[in-house]
Design goal:
By secondary structure, the chain is mostly beta strands. It has one domain (about 1-325): Neuraminidase. About 0% of the residues lie in helices and about 40% in strands. The protein has 1 helix and 24 strands. The chain has one helix at about 1-10, and strands at about 55-60, 65-70, 75-80, 90-95, 100, 105-110, 115-120, 125-135, 140-145, 150-155, 160-165, 180-185, 190-195, 200, 210-215, 215-220, 230, 235-240, 245-250, 265-270, 275, 295-300, 305-310, 325.
């Protein structure tokens, strides 16, 4: 996909660059769920799976502080709090151990020893909620603003290598325009147009190639079988084929013992299971540690819950979840 993308952009120097992200198994995860209502139990008394030991994973979330974690062997092995004023909506642990993350008012890359390697600040009255690396020297992101656009930026020179405009419902309503987007193996860009309730696939000239209506869509990921996995704040996850048909769907009603209110993202694992995040809104809710919601669940194709993650209390307080990148097949950086 990188080779195809660089060829399309005319960027020959990145043709030999390796994978885009740290996921050796193709799993980059971002997921979430929101506010709790009433005093009913938020989870079953006994949760399925092995807790923090179920998977090794990289974790970050939209919260009042920009926190990120790596969990290995059932324990937090690395953590970092970025001194920013935004929310982390997208992040990736790269093969070299560096971390690239979009945090509303910019995109930053840090090393595993917590040094800032690169930073791009969003222009005034603009926001950035999704970003991913292309090789080692390029970053793409989507700019929310009065001139919303997809941008490919050269980290070394600071030059914009490519860009095209995106449509939104209201150019003056910036925050809710977009969240997660992803490149496909074909070198196209799959974008969740959150304000319009659509998933749209663009070529690099900005031409719309495919679209489907998904009310409340927060994220959309291309799957290996060619289908799209879309997650909606209206508490559902859908696998959609290229004919626009829903071939698999999970809703909060499929997990009646768990409290869900705002699903953001989901990721399909190699075994066919799907991880779905449960975002807790720190701005509108107060966490009850005695009745805390799960931060994510893993469901089988027949919607049985194989794992539920709940980690709100020290020494493993992960905070609200948005990104969970599974690292089971990714060795720890030395």
């Amino acid at each position: 996909m990188i080779t195809q993308l660089c060829t399309l952009l005319g960027l020959a120097p990145c043709l030999a660059i390796g994978t885009v992200s740290a996921r050796a198994d193709g799993t980059t995860n971002a997921l979430a769920i929101g506010s709790m209502a009433g005093n009913a139990s938020a989870t079953p008394a006994v949760l399925p799976g092995k807790g923090l030991a179920q998977h090794d994973f990289f974790y970050a979330g939209e919260s009042k502080t920009e926190r990120m974690y790596i969990v290995r062997g059932g324990q937090i092995s690395w953590e970092y709090t970025h001194p920013g004023n935004g929310e982390i909506s997208d992040a990736v642990l790269q093969p070299d151990g560096n971390i690239l993350f979009a945090h509303q008012f910019g995109v930053t890359e840090i090393s595993r020893d917590k040094k800032v390697l690169w930073n791009f600040d969003a222009p005034p009255k603009a926001e950035i909620h999704t970003a991913q690396p292309i090789g080692t020297n390029l970053v793409w992101f989507i700019l929310n603003g009065n001139s919303p656009k997809f941008v490919v930026l050269n980290k070394s020179s600071g030059n914009v290598e490519h860009q095209f405009a995106l449509r939104v419902k209201d150019t003056n309503s910036v925050h809710g325009q977009f969240r997660e987007a992803r490149l496909t193996e074909a070198g196209t860009i799959l974008v969740a147009l959150m304000s319009l309730g659509e998933v749209v696939e663009y070529d690099l000239d900005g031409k719309e190639l495919w679209s489907v209506a998904v009310p409340g869509v927060w994220s959309a990921k291309p799957l290996a079988n060619g289908n799209i996995l879309a997650a909606s704040s209206r508490k559902f996850v859908r696998e959609i084929n290229r004919q626009g048909e829903t071939v698999w769907e999970w809703t909060a009603a499929d997990a009646p013992d768990y409290k869900f209110s705002n699903v953001q993202t989901a990721v399909r694992l190699p075994n066919g299971n799907t991880i779905i995040n449960n975002w807790f809104n720190q701005w509108s809710d107060k966490l009850d540690e005695n009745n805390a919601p799960v931060q994510a669940i893993e469901v089988t194709p027949d919607k049985k819950i194989a794992w539920a993650l709940r980690a709100w209390i020290a020494p493993a307080d992960l905070g609200p979840s948005t990104t969970i990148q599974i690292l089971d097949r990714v060795p720890d950086a030395k």
